[in-house]
Design a protein that fits this description.
about 220 residues; alpha/beta; 3 helices; about 30% strand; globular
Length: about 220
């Protein structure tokens, strides 16, 4: 649990951020339709990734009962994967979630139109500045909460990080207190990740838990 200017921010093992006081669920980088996008380029990837991403979201919404679910960009992977089936799933999401469903536009939404789900600009919510890509907050003292970077922590391999040594790549939340900025891990199950810059405060997602790493780990 983080506290920012009196607002509780709960880091969830489902790779999402929960604001219990506002009943607001934030997540980023679902990349729905990625399998179909890759298939259109000739790669035979099975079309089963969306269920592995959407089902955990529905389970989480049914447990928390949010008033709103807001995706911080890259809900879809590309317009190539925005099939009629995916459009139907997106249209049904507000009813299935039982709450309002919104989208702050990401780079992967550019050039696409999703009926009933216009891409919103970056915006302020209380002490938070919500965006897809990292960007300066719209006012002093706000915490920029964003996605886009798919942060992961690299663990193991020894202190010298020897090539070929066993290492774990775990999705993580990452806080840069100087920016200030909180990076969310990607919610999608078909997404990769990028190592966090050094010096950030990190919480890894592993085996259904969120664990803070010691400094320098």
């Amino acid at each position: 649990m983080l506290l920012w200017q009196g607002t509780e921010l709960e880091l969830l093992p489902q790779r999402a951020l929960w604001l219990p006081g506002d009943r607001l669920l934030l997540l980023a980088d679902l990349h729905l339709g990625k399998a179909e996008s890759v298939q259109a380029q000739g790669v035979p990837l099975p079309s089963d990734g969306d269920g592995a991403t959407l089902n955990p979201l529905l389970e989480l919404a049914h447990r928390l009962r949010p008033a709103e679910v807001l995706v911080l960009g890259d809900l879809i992977h590309s317009r190539l994967g925005l099939t009629a089936e995916l459009r139907a799933k997106l249209a049904a999401l507000p009813e299935l979630l039982g709450c309002s469903f919104g989208l702050i536009g990401g780079n992967h939404e550019r050039g696409s139109w999703i009926e009933g789900l216009p891409a919103q600009p970056s915006q302020r919510r209380g002490p938070l500045w919500l965006s897809h890509e990292p960007e300066p907050p719209g006012a002093p003292g706000l915490l920029n909460v964003c996605g886009h970077l798919h942060p992961v922590a690299l663990l193991g391999g020894g202190r010298a990080r020897r090539p070929g040594a066993d290492r774990l790549r775990l999705p993580c939340f990452a806080l840069d207190p100087q920016a200030p900025r909180l990076l969310l891990p990607s919610f999608g199950r078909l997404t990769g990740g990028h190592p966090c810059p050094p010096g950030l405060r990190r919480w890894v997602v592993a085996e259904g838990s969120v664990l803070e790493l010691p400094a320098g780990a």
